[in-house]
Each structure stands twice: as structure tokens, then as C-alpha cells.
Amino acid sequence: MNNNRYCVIMCGGVGSRFWPYSRANMPKQFIDFFGTGRSLLQMTVDRIKGLVPDENIIMLTNAQYAGIIAEQLPQLKPEQILLEPARRNTAPCIAWAAWHIKALNPDAQIMVAPSDHLILMIDEYRECVNKAFDFIASRSAILTMGIKPNRPETGYGYIQVGDMICPDIMEVKTFTEKPNVELARVFLESGEFFWNSGMFFWSADTIIDAITTHAADIAAIFDAGKHVMGTAVEQTYINERYSSCRNVSIDFAVMEKAPNVYVECVDYGWNDLGTWGSLYDNSEHGDAGNATLGSNVMCYNASNNIIKTHGDKIVVVDGLNDYIVADVNDALLIVPKSKEQKIRLYVNEIKEKFGDKYL
Amino acid sequence: MNNNRYCVIMCGGVGSRFWPYSRANMPKQFIDFFGTGRSLLQMTVDRIKGLVPDENIIMLTNAQYAGIIAEQLPQLKPEQILLEPARRNTAPCIAWAAWHIKALNPDAQIMVAPSDHLILMIDEYRECVNKAFDFIASRSAILTMGIKPNRPETGYGYIQVGDMICPDIMEVKTFTEKPNVELARVFLESGEFFWNSGMFFWSADTIIDAITTHAADIAAIFDAGKHVMGTAVEQTYINERYSSCRNVSIDFAVMEKAPNVYVECVDYGWNDLGTWGSLYDNSEHGDAGNATLGSNVMCYNASNNIIKTHGDKIVVVDGLNDYIVADVNDALLIVPKSKEQKIRLYVNEIKEKFGDKYL
Fold first, then answer.
1. Where are the alpha helices (H) located in chain B, listed in sequence order?
2. Residue A247 three-state SS
3. Disulfide: which of A92, A149, A161, B357 matches A245 by Cβ 3.0-4.6 Å?
């Protein structure tokens, strides 16, 4: 295996749209949603097994999740877990990872992956990852993975492709924010637009150059600490300086500005599991289209619901259609699938009313 | 206080229509449905305080509930709790109580009361109870309480009244089983029909005579044991013979046959709490008509639901109308109020599928 390959898994997200399953101390990526015995994070690590040396896998997460990660991934050494002292979106987090890895290995080739996505076609995925690593090994490229869209989704950003560089890898023409449904339909039909997956590939040098050019303020913070990276005082330095980073996404800070951005067009059964609805779409459907995640669910005159329960709790549902029913020990949510965007609102109201107790 | 007065509280019922709150080991009468800190049984005992000497209150229940009763009513002495070794409906249970009490006090005047009803106007209730005791003290009468109906209820039996004996106490003309809704409307408008409440008054002698005449087989069993009643071997005798009693209600075995049956017409805010719907009717309604039994329920676009939760569990409901949502640790029920009669079916199916685990 190529020892220059690194994988940075971002797993500090909050995932409040999956409340009450996703909680402040146990966000979505740590949950075994499908009852397979593996959390989304564990499935992410399983997927890259053999593509990247085990010791080159690095978790980037919020300090509060250090315990869960150590528990779910006991094979990791403490130095493979980088703990952000504050939430500053993806650009500072990716910058830290770049400067950190550069100190460990100046020739590093880095893959950045979210920890909470679902990928169904693993062989295809692994082929695409290898191809991406090969691509960035041979040139100073910022490469993102673009997912072939299968519906006019309005919840994602889109990437418009330009000239082909090699099979399935194109120049990026534009990044587009979440479109309205009419525009999303045009995107879908054109064949030129791909979903922005949040998976990136680059060498340590390339991303450090790009951040230095396009987000100099962030670069300055990590560049000033480059001599402590990979040492025992790195965390102390980060704890002191990280919070002063601007809160900004890597897309906005770098991807949309850099000239050397490419997209690998892929199609390997991807879903970002952003909402209960997308979990419903990716779950097995039983009688009448109900997706039941949990052992003892009995449905009568109920259709197209997603019903998630825990342990051996029994749930009897009569007469509900197109609902989310999500039950945990201390919280129960019953909401139409069409209103799942409101879950964040409810979580905010709960916070106002009860503080952090149910979050 | 009149030391001849006794009160028999029947508290051996199963109450499966209130699943999942009502469980085989914790039926409806033992539950604090209204969150007042008192179960329906405790409220029943509280209500007769001062009307009957404390030591003359007798529980008639199934053996399996001995522990709960001792816990909920620690003031009772063991000899105040009669434990049926089997379920045989109300006639055998009332017969046992009659022979038992007759042995303790041949002049006993007995009130028989269910343990799982709600009564809102306590002063009126107590007045009616006193009047009933006075009535049966002076004559050989079987007296039942008939509730003034306020709606064409099809779930209850009705009593048609005949000649007035004294204010509010009439002869009984007929007992009528649950009517259809057209008939129930006629009953309501006529003013001649009252709901059969299952509350009875009689002297020990009168009910023993009536059972002997109209249900001789049952009488024989208790008459053969009359010398052990009130002694240390009473329970042994009952354990041996009780199961051989016919399974029959006191209404069918005696009330509908005896000539000396009277009804006291009462109106003291009674509800039998037979179903979630009647619990809804008797609960406080908040915004949009939702009755929330439990502390932390948040409703959005939801109306006329009854939502019962436990402890400090939080429940968020969006978009439900006219539903029952009942959540306990190991079970959750979501069913339209209009289908509450099906809960028994569901409970049966759960039994078939999972045995007694969730019952």
C-alpha cells in the first residue's frame, strides 16, 4: 500500500435533523441506524480499509466526542484523533488536518471524507477512491467527488462539469448552491451537473497552497504553528488558536475560488442521510411501504412511514401515512415526512424550554 | 359512624383496552392516570372515607394483585383483602364477599363499588351513598346506582325506571344491554333510562337470599363454606372451590331476575373510564383540544389528541388529529381515537406474537 495516502474523516457534526436519535452527545455519525451493528462512522472506516494504511486514518472531530470515537474505533491510536476545541465549519478543520499531515509526511496525499454518508456499492466506491488518489498524485489538483444525480434534489449543492481531463474526471465549471426544483430538473436533464458530495482529494502541498492563496487568514494561524504540528504541544497550540479561525466552509473559502479544481463523476449508491426522509428512501420497505427500523413494529392501515424504535420496544401504529415516528428512551417524535425540515425548529424550541436536557 | 356498613371494592379487572398503560401486572385501577399522585383505586378508597368504617373496607381482587394493593393501600390489614384464585366475573366474587361479611357481621349493609371509575362531584356522590345505605337498611332491597345519561352512549347497559319509591329511588322496570345509537337516542330523550354503573347496595341477608334463589349453584359453594368464612382457613377453602363457580355477572345472575331491585338515579360527574376516549373526555384540554397526560408534550398542528407519556419523557407531535398516543418504557401505541375498540385486537395479536412479554 502507498504510505503517502492519508484519510481524514470529519466526524464532529451535530446532526440535529435526526433528533431524537441524534443527540448532542451522540450525533448521527455514531448511531447504528440500520441495526447492522456498525455506526455510520464505523462503516466509513470499514469502507477505506486497504485503500489507506490503517495508521494514516485521522479523525477530525469535536473534543466532546473523543470518548465515543475511542469506544467505536478502539484500533485508533490517540494521535490519530484530532480534537477541535470549537466548531468552525470545514475550512479550519481541513486546514489543521493539512498542516498536521504535512508535518508527518511532506509527500502526503489526502482524502477528506464525511463520516455520516451511506454508500451502497463498495467495489465501485473503492475503484473511484483509487482513481482519485492516482489523479492527485500526479498533479497539483483539488479534486472533489461529484455524485451522478438521480432526482431533482433541492437540498444539495451542484457542480457543473467542464472539459474532460481523463475518463470520469472533468474540470469544474461552476459550483451552484441548492437550486429550486425547476432549476434542479434542468440540472438533472442536462447531464452536466453532479451533486457536491463533500469528499475531497489533494496533496498536502496543494491544499496548503490553496488555503494560503484563498484563505490567508486561516493559513496564517496554522502556518504560525507548523513547527509544533505532530508534536506533544500541538493540541495546546490548537486549543489556544483554533477558535480565532473564521467560521467558513472549504467550499466557500477555497473550492469556489481556486483554478485547479476538478471533479470525479461517480455513481456508487450514495446518500448523505441528511434527513429522516433520505433514511426512509434507503431503508428496506415492508408491507404498505413502511420502513421499520427496530424489531417489534406492528402496522395497521399505515403506509409509507418510517418508524424507528430501540431495543425490544414494541410499537403499534394504526392509521398513519407518510410519517416519521422516532422513539428513544426519553423522547418521542411524531411528524409528517413532509415536515422533516421543521425538526430543527422543534429542537430549538426544546432547547429554549428545557435547556440541554433532551438535546 | 354506622359499624354495620361495609364497602366491597372490586379491583381484579384486567383493563386491556388501556394497553400499553394497563398491563397484566398493573391494570387500569392501579394507575395514576391523571398524574395526581393517586391511582383510580386510591381515589375510590379516598371517596368513601368517613362513609364506611375504615376497617370495613374490603378489597376483592385477583391473587396476583395482592402486592400492588398492599403497596397502594398500606392502611389495609391483610384480612381486608380477599384474593380470588381465578377470574369468574362479578357474581361469584360478590357472593364470596356476601358470605364473608355475613360471617363477620350478620347485620352488615354492603356497598359494592368498582375501583376504576372517575367521579368528579364528591359531595353529591357522598350524599347519594348515604341515601343508598339508608334505603337498604330499612328494607330487603337490591339497589343499584343509575347514572343520568348525558349522551346516547352505546357502550353501556341501561336501566329503565318504574314507580318512584322515594325521591330519586325507583323500582327497576327493565335492564337493557348496550343499545344501538338510534335506541340510545330514544333512551336519552325519554328520561326513563339510566346508565348501569355497577355500584350496588344491599344487606348481607338480602343478597345471600337473592343469590340462593336465582343462582343456587353459586350459593351452594359459599353456603357449604359458611363455617370457615372469616377464619384462618377461609382462603384455603376458597382456593379449592372458587374455580368451580360458573363465570357469570351479578347483573345476569341476580339483578335481571330478582323482584326487589331498585335504582337510585344519580348525577355526580361519573365516567367509567372504559376507554382512552372516555379518558380524553375527562381530561383537561389544552390548546387545540389536545389532552396531554404527561409533563413534556409539544404539539404542532395537532388537535383533539390524547397524549399520555411517562416520567419526564418529551413528546413532539406534529400534524396528528384525533389520535391516541400512549407511550411507556417498552411499548408505544399510536391509534386514531375512532379505532380504540381495536386495541384489544392488537393486544391479542401481541400475545400471539410475543407471549406475555408486553401484556
1. 40-47, 66-72, 90-104, 122-137, 181-190, 204-214, 216-223, 234-241, 250, 276-281, 343-354
2. coil
3. A92
Chain B residues with CB under 8 Å of A320 CB are 334
Average pLDDT over residues A21-38: 88
Could you tell me what percent of chain A has a pLDDT over 70? 100
- Give the model's confidence band at A356: pLDDT under 50 very low, under 70 low, under 90 confident, else very high: confident
Rounded Cα–Cα distance for residues A193 and A152 (Å) = 11
For A178, residues 6+ apart whose C-beta sits below 8 A from its C-beta are A154, A155, A156, A157
Closest-CA residue of B relative to A317 is B334
Positions in chain B short of pLDDT 70: none
Burial class (CB in 10 A: 0-12, 13-18, 19+), A116: buried
Looking at residue B35, what is its pLDDT? 77
User: Looking up cell 490503517, which residue turns up?
Assistant: A54
Rounded distance, CA B239 to CA B84, Å?
8
- Taking CB atoms and an 8 Å cutoff, what residues of chain B touch A317? 334-335
DSSP 8-class letter at A129: H
pTM assigned to the model? 0.81
CA atoms within 13 A on the CB side of B73: 28
Cα–Cα distance for residue pair A96/A63, rounded to 1 Å: 14
At A24 the pLDDT is 85
- Burial (CB count within 10 angstroms: exposed 0-12, middle 13-18, buried 19+), residue A245: buried
Nearest-by-Cβ selection for B332 from A332, A350, A353:
A332
Answer yes or no: is the ipTM higher than 0.85.
no
Distance CA(A316)–CA(B325), nearest Å, equals 10
Contact call for A332 and B327, based on CB within 8 A: yes
- List the one residue out of B185, B189, B211 whose CA is nearest residue B200: B211
Q: Look at the alpha carbons of B199, B204, B209, B212 in this order and tell me if their dihedral is positive or negative.
A: positive
C-alpha cell at A285: 420497505
> CA distances (Å), B195 to each of B112, B165, B249, B283, in order?
16, 19, 16, 21
Question: Do you find a cis peptide bond into A20, omega within 30 degrees of 0?
Answer: yes
By the 8 A CB rule, do A330 and A343 touch?
no
Q: Do A313 and B320 touch (CB under 8 A)?
A: no
CA distance B252 to A162: 87
B247 Cβ contact partners less than 8 Å away, ≥ 6 residues apart: B87, B88, B89, B92
